[in-house]
Recover the amino acids of this structure.
């Protein structure tokens, strides 16, 4: 079940699922989750599951609740299935014969495209900007943006989650993209590259049409997404100018 990008986005369907559940679980490593919104509707105290509980242990606590005949809910920020690995939990429960309903939420991906004035018809592949691991950078955002730009498509970049559960600030993401440019050198991420920054949506943040150099020098907080616009239509261009 998704509870949207921030407070106030719990749908009636999500509220009903919470009210009907015997066990309420949540995770907050794929996006910040407003726990009070969940408590408002749930009849039991929500239990936090970590990435390890869900991805390494296959959501065992959820399956145990189901196997005792209970109804279980797993609440996530945004939409529960977009840019997450939660399909594995759904599949594990269905394989054991349980009925599973996915309750969609307002995804940060949809919300960011809306707030950023960009047409989803031109959204190309999505990637995540990650911190270098063991000194090695993932080249995926660079290669994907390069392909999307060639086709005139927009590139939506999600930002890494740190080990301590905090979200990569936009300045760190801009620094990673500029470092990738130094490694690859094909002119995909230049300091003057125009970008749409969507930060802390639903939590008092907003959207800004700016460039990579300005983001690298900014103090916006995460969570955030960075969109590299492709070829802009006149309506997109006109709307983007209002985000300067
Ligand atoms: C792995 S994605 C999960 C997306 C989620 N399942 C959804 O559909 O909304 C998590 C990333 O989305 C971005 N994000 C999450 N919440 C956000 C928010 N409220 N405002 C801006 N970006 C956000 C951050 O880049 C974060 O690392």
């Amino acid at each position: 079940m998704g509870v949207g990008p921030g407070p106030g986005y719990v749908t009636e369907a999500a509220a009903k699922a919470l009210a009907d559940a015997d066990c309420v679980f949540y995770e907050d490593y794929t996006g910040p989750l407003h726990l009070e919104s969940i408590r408002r509707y749930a009849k039991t105290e929500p239990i936090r599951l970590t990435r390890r509980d869900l991805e390494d242990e296959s959501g065992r606590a959820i399956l145990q609740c189901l196997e005792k005949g209970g109804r279980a809910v797993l609440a996530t920020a945004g939409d529960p299935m977009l840019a997450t690995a939660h399909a594995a939990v759904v599949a594990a429960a269905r394989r054991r014969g349980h009925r599973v309903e996915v309750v969609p939420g307002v995804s940060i991906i949809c919300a960011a495209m809306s707030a950023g004035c960009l047409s989803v018809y031109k959204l190309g592949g999505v990637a995540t900007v990650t911190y270098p691991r063991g000194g090695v950078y993932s080249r995926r955002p660079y290669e994907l943006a390069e392909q999307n730009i060639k086709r005139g498509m927009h590139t939506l970049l999600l930002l890494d989650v740190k080990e301590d559960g905090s979200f990569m600030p936009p300045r760190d993401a801009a620094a990673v993209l500029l470092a990738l440019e130094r490694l690859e050198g094909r002119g995909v991420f230049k300091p003057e590259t125009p970008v749409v920054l969507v930060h802390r949506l639903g939590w008092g943040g907003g959207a800004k049409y700016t460039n990579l150099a300005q983001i690298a020098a900014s103090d916006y907080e995460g969570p955030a997404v960075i969109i590299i616009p492709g070829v802009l239509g006149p309506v997109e261009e006109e709307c983007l100018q209002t985000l300067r």
